[in-house]
Amino acid sequence: MPSDKAVAEPFGNRAPFAEPSWYNALASPYYKESHRRVRDHVRRYVDEHIAPNIQEWEENGHVPDEARLRYARAGLAFPELPGEYRGGVPLPGGVSIEEWDTFHSLVLGYELSKIWAAGVSAGLSGGTTIGVPPVIHHGTDEQKKRWLPGIFTGQTSFCLGCTEPTGGSDLANLRTTAVKTEDGAYYVVNGHKKWITGALRATHMTTAVRTGEQGTGGISVLVIPLDLAGISRRKIKNTGWNAGDSTWVTLENVKVPADHLIGQENSGFRYIMTNFNRERFLLAVLMNGQARICLEDAWAYAMDRQTFGKPLMAHQSIRHKLVAMARYVESHWAWLEQIAYHAQRADGGRMGAELASRIALAKVHGGRLLELANREAQQVFGGAAYQRGGVGARVEQIGRDLRVNIVGGGSEEIISDLAVRQEIGAAVGRGAKL
């Protein structure tokens, strides 16, 4: 899919490496006019409607309901939602559903990383973004008609209930149980879910529960209305992500209608794991974008700040820090593009099993990249990146938020090991002698 322009008109921040190279420097075979329209539309919306409020919303600990609804109605959330459930809400940039591809999603994810407080981004749509895909891909037509249209009217919002107090990445050993009543009409659910993004204000929780034997073969997915009797919720106070509504959910003898089961009973592990591909890819894109924010702000500060009679940028040690960030953001972005290119052509898209290991490692690499970029930017700023507000505000906020992006969606230890085991299996399948 060749680009219709060799090099696009410069866009965004002109500082070196502050934006993906196709924005203002190099030609790319991956992007065309529709991708630029998405980029322009989302950047304009974020600059006008979100950026002026980021600090206030994060300090207040929540995103106003009207801002969340306006965001959804603007088409920035849930591009994978089928047209019949969108209520006429267009995709960003006027791109048709038929035309929307993986690179549009890549551009959208990158542009949304400009919401530099990750809790605000999560507060706008994060819970639904990860909670609704199992319904889209494995729900019945009746379930989709019941729940999906309300996303764009404010009547429905989702969260994903997987993590528990006793474990997050170890989904196979979850302890929340769902026991069917004798008449088969309900599941009675008991357990706890922890660090559930968006659960404080969500109407439904797409929930991993144990309906069968221990291990992966006994897990199912239920969509649980959060107004049912026996459910209590309380906000968890974390280091960052204050506006992300991180929530502890307790379920005590909650009677969930049996027709809220997604897909087949005891098949839920697969549904959740394929959903992780999408979540991890989006997290990797987010971390690349936030690393570029650190680079962008550090670069500007180094050009402006005078020390010992000359700009910080005149010191070789400072230039070395900036170029180290540049090496990592550019190479990581190229990997994300390679993954997107394959997903664009594979039958399973980003859900494909052959991409799971690479997406996992791209997410791990994104975390390492963001940690390095944030640390080096803090070194450039000095004390200015340790105070809330001022020239170092974005770097300081990213420093408080970054751990949840690194641990969320699977810790690097767990998903790195997963990637190795999957690649060994794939290599043996190709005839490798290991």
From TrEMBL:
**Which parts of the sequence belong to the Acyl-CoA oxidase/dehydrogenase middle domain?**
159-254
- One Gene Ontology CC term in the entry: cytoplasm
- Name the SUPFAM superfamilies on file: Acyl-CoA dehydrogenase C-terminal domain-like (SSF47203), Acyl-CoA dehydrogenase NM domain-like (SSF56645)
Q: Which cofactor does it need?
A: FAD
User: Do you know which InterPro entries this protein is assigned to?
Assistant: Acyl-CoA_dehydrogenase, Acyl-CoA_Oxase/DH_mid-dom, Acyl-CoA_Oxase/DH_mid-dom_sf, AcylCo_DH-like_C, AcylCo_DH/oxidase_C, AcylCoA_DH/ox_N, AcylCoA_DH/ox_N_sf, AcylCoA_DH/oxidase_NM_dom_sf
Recite the UniProt keywords alphabetically.
Answer: FAD, Flavoprotein, Oxidoreductase
- Record domain Acyl-CoA dehydrogenase/oxidase N-terminal: where: 33-154
Which family is annotated? Belongs to the acyl-CoA dehydrogenase family.
Protein's recorded name: Acyl-CoA dehydrogenase
The major lineage groups are: Eukaryota, Fungi, Dikarya, Ascomycota, Pezizomycotina
